[in-house]
Amino acid sequence: MPSGQTTLEQVLPLLQVRIFAYDCLRRTFLGEPSKEFLRTVSHEGFIEGFPFAEDSALIHEGAENVSEYLKNQDVLSEEVHDKLHWDYTRMFIGPYELPAPPWESAYLNKERLLFQEETINVRRAYLKYAFLPKDFGHEADDHLGLELDFMYQLSELAEAKVSKQDIGGLVEVLRDQKAFLEDHLLKWVPEFSKQAARHAQTQFYEGMVKILAGFLELDLKALEELLDINV
Question: What stretches pass through the bilayer (predicted)?
């Protein structure tokens, strides 16, 4: 980022890239893949051009995994669609022991219990922005898909602050995103990603968890650069 005076409009492209990335990632991990989502990611260049892929070996490797899978499998067929559903279900839902539980507390809580202090801390971050998870009270707030959805919502809010020329509001949102990355996602997603990549039965999820881990790491740097801009 340039160190001189920068207009708010000049930071928009990076903000919009972050919206795109978090939208893709939240839709990947919020639930089993819909055919609509699979049709979207199958578009030529969608995964290959994932943000920051040229700056991250992990994102690049993950994108290659997903791209190869999409080229060799008809993901809209019932057979392949069912395989992807099962891969998501057995890793992230059950009914058997989960190889890669998708909750923050499963990695940071000694007893690996849900709805503990870790969950409450995540809820506090949500409440500042009146973010109420869809299945509040039934799904733990620290589910990966919900944490990514929160980052997506704040990314959209940051773009809205630029439209309103609200520099102070933009800085506050970006600082809160940086804090959420450091205090939550980056504390457990790297380990989650390793476990999920190891146990995935499809290249699709093997690749997507690599993309996830690589993107979060570089997004922290992007936020640091955005907060260092003189506007």
Answer: none
